[in-house]
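Reviewer 2 asked us to include a model.

Predict the structure of this chain.
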Amino acid sequence: MDTLTAFLSAMIALSAAVERVVEILKGMFQRLREDPDPRTDLQGKGAARRRLVLQVLAALAGTVAALTIGPQNFLKSLPDGGYESPVRWIAAVFIGLMASGGSAFWNHALDIVGAIKNAKESLAAAQQAPVAMKPVPPRGP
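Predicted model (structure tokens):
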């Protein structure tokens, strides 16, 4: 459970960083900042293209960050290969794609894992608690 919590925490941090990079790029370029005028973009293709470009930018930013940091820092089970390792590149692409989904998703996933962990701890504590003896009523006339 601790490995999963560490992975989700790292993904939240990476997703937040990716979101910041995309926001900076949106601030630099008006075409990324605003949807096209609906009067000129009657079919909505311009708005769809803008969203696609933003998703691709987020995936690229996440991939570059994961490649630089090292995918094995997200998942300890991955081998620690250099930049020539195909495993490093493939893992970085997958981590980058996951990070581009946004930190809200990962934050929600971490909340679920925390709730499961708390429920397991409560159950274990309840099972280890001593059982109280029932009082025996006195016998007599």
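Residues 2-35+47-118 form one domain. The CA atoms of residues 72 and 79 lie 6 Å apart. We have added this to the supplementary material.
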